[in-house]
Amino acid sequence: MPPADNTPNDYQRSELRSGAVIHIWGRENPRAIIILQHGFAEYAERYLDSYCRLIPSLLAHDYKVYALDLWGHGRSPGKRSVLNVERAISDHNELRRRVFEEHPSRPIFLFGHSLGGLITAVSLTTDPSHVAGIILTGAALPAQAPIIRSVILQPLAALAPTLRLRYTRVQVENACQRPEEYQKCLNDSMVFKGHISLRLGATALRAAEKLWQAIDSWTVPTLIMHGTKDTYTAHEQSKVLFDGIHASDKTLILAEGGYHELLNDLDNKQHLASILSWLERRTKSTVVHK
Q1: Within 13 Å, how many C-alpha atoms sit on residue 115's CB side?
Q2: Domain boundaries in the chain?
């Protein structure tokens, strides 16, 4: 759990109808809104003290941040890391509607890391309205699974949703190359270090199928970042997404030798600067997709 004194003073906490917890940082009239979705096994407040202090950096540049703890993660209820990805996408869409209602005149940008990248991407293709741009880092973008795998996995997930899949343990040692960040993650009791559940695996595959079927509708400004030595998620799939979307404003950064958590990796300050400069250029003259 992050130390209490790391939490900025302008902090609020709320909930969605599902009970999932929303963390809110920032002043009432910001330059833009960032909706941040963390990845599997972690939680939103990790982005206060790790990830090159992404949330404080965004606040310093006058962005307001809404960050959602996935069901079974962080301060949200539910069995730890047993997640229905389709439900998470529904939660994400609900949060987006709420943010727009609260800030109808402000640009809204989406940020998703790892599994949060898949959730954010499918949320966008489900409803692209009121989105000024999207940033994905180390996104989990499964290729379409063979039919036989889906035929076997889906019924098993219905029968035993909490059953853990072998060979899917979260290997924190492969997340990044900074020893201090690795140690911090290893010692963090709120970071789940077990295996992926059948429910998560099955619903993630279904969500990915929806994504690949809908990428033709993807036209918003897009920044995709991925490390080429990421052993959690495939950087090749980020390239497939980049090539498939129809956005005229799109940027792909493949960080040579980079691990899964680029903002905790060796060149983390460079990656943070890329994100901030990308946002800066697109908040000067933003066209929001209605």
Answers
A1: 27
A2: 4-284
Pull the structure tokens for residue 286.
């933003």
**What tens-digit pLDDT sequence spans the chain (290 residues)?**
444 445 676 999 999 999 999 999 999 999 999 999 999 999 999 999 999 999 999 999 999 999 999 999 999 999 998 999 999 999 999 999 999 999 999 999 999 999 999 999 999 999 999 999 999 999 999 997 666 566 667 777 667 667 777 656 677 889 999 999 999 999 999 999 988 888 898 899 999 999 999 999 999 999 999 999 999 999 999 999 999 999 999 999 999 999 999 999 999 999 999 999 999 999 986 655 55
Pick the CATH number of 4-284 from 3.40.50.280, 3.40.50.10800, 3.40.50.1110, 3.40.50.1820: 3.40.50.1820
Query: What single-letter DSSP state applies at residue 242?
Result: H
pTM of this structure: 0.92
The length of the chain is: 290
Tokens representing 30?
């910001």
**Which stretches within the chain are classed as H helix?**
46-49, 54-60, 85-102, 115-126, 147-159, 179-187, 198-214, 235-244, 268-284
- Rounded CA-CA distance 38/201 in Å is 17
